Amino acid sequence: MKISCTAMFTLLLQLRRASVASAFQQPARISARNVGQRSIASSSSILLAKEGGGGGRSSAAVADKDLLNKTTSDKQSNKKVALDTNPPKGTRDFYPADMRLQSWLFNQWRQVAATYGFSEYDAPVLESESLYTRKAGEEVTQQLYNFEDKGGRNVALRPEMTPSLARMVMAKKGGLPLPLKWYSIPQCWRYERMTRGRRREHYQWNMDIWGVDGIEAEAELLSAMVMFFKNVGLTADDVGIKVNSRNVIGEVLTELGVPEEKFAATCVLVDKLEKVPLDAIQGELEELGLERSMIEKLTDVLTNTSIESISAVLPDDSKAVQELTKLFDLCNAYGIGDWIMFDASVVRGLAYYTGVVFEAFDRKGVLRAVAGGGRYDKLLETFGGEPTPAAGFGFGDAVIVELLKERNVLPSFEGSGYDSV
């Protein structure tokens, strides 16, 4: 039988179709795993048929009409609040130019300290709260950044360095050779009202001499302070240093019949009179057993601005007059007499001062106190140690930078000093 090519092609095509149809009619051998997969696929197909009709592939997510709203809602709820780029109130960021300024200032302090033979030390910024909570009404006790740590200990960020120094000296149990001449540049923290040159954190140059009970220690400290002023371009027309002695107040209070144990607390209150009227501290005075007439007489004495005038109201053998007279003689010998002046109103607000106190100030009166210090012979005793003669000062970075800007003698630190590559 002869079959044409066309007939042969038609026959083959029919056989192919029959084979395909037969394959779909065979029962499938599927595993349990395939059953599950087909079940899922089947459900998806039914869902897609109901939603969109027709064939084609799509994800189950498309079938959820509320998916867009759900996604939008999630994004809105997870929207991040914009970062506050300011540092915490009262603190500072230090960009490279600021760091260059700081390095320059610290180097000026270190050079002076080295010239006078002082050694650098440091201590933790976190200290025991009890180191600062003296019972004399000092502002510092209300300005602490303090908290209870995870071990249940009451701690505080240091508001000043002198108590840490006292702790370190006590820890050596008399093993340190005296006289001790140490300096530090710690960061200190106080939660206080901010003004120009006053922040809640600042760096402070501290210079302390331990083991010298004569007025020579104060004279050396004052000389070092003046050297710094000169080195950075300031003169005695820009800055003065007021000097007084806590013994002046002590001798007046003794005549008024005030017990010696109340001297320190009284000095703290008198120091507040520079900021508030007498009426504002009347209640605190009464708690100390001080009558208003006593304080009025004391404040009259504190208006004296010369050693001669203060001598007229103190006993003839006044220890305060003797030490102040010697101090001024030593300052003249150091060549800094034109920087120093007597001012009986300078008391300083820390209870531990026991003798001479001093305060550097802006002669134009634009800025607050630039630096301050004095003698504190009994500080170690308040912590349970042996009385040890000591004197020192603290010198903050914020005020001096403002003063140098005010006098237009602060160098520029905008350039890094390096060529770009």
Brief overview:
By secondary structure, the protein is α+β, with helices and mostly antiparallel strands. It has 14 helices and twelve strands.
Count of separate DSSP helical elements: 14
Helix content: 40-55%
- SSE sequence, one letter per element: HHHHEEEEHEEEHEHHHHHHEEEHEH
Mean pLDDT: 81
Can you tell me the overall shape?
globular
State Rg.
40 Å
Describe the biggest sheet? 9 strands, mixed
> What is the straight-line distance between the termini?
95 Å
Percent of residues in beta strands? 5-15%
Question: How many beta-strand elements?
Answer: 12
Poorly predicted tracts of residues? 26-62
> How would you classify the helix and strand content by structural class?
alpha+beta
Walkthrough of the structure:
- With 421 residues, the chain is an alpha+beta fold.
- 40% of the residues lie in helices and 14% in strands.
- Strands 1, 5, 6, 7, 8, 9, 10, 11 and 12 form a nine-stranded mixed sheet that branches. It has a three-stranded antiparallel sheet with strand order 2-4-3, with no helix packed on it.
- Helix 4 packs across helix 6 and helix 6 packs parallel to helix 12.
- It is globular, with a radius of gyration of 40 Å.
- About 9% of the residues have low confidence.
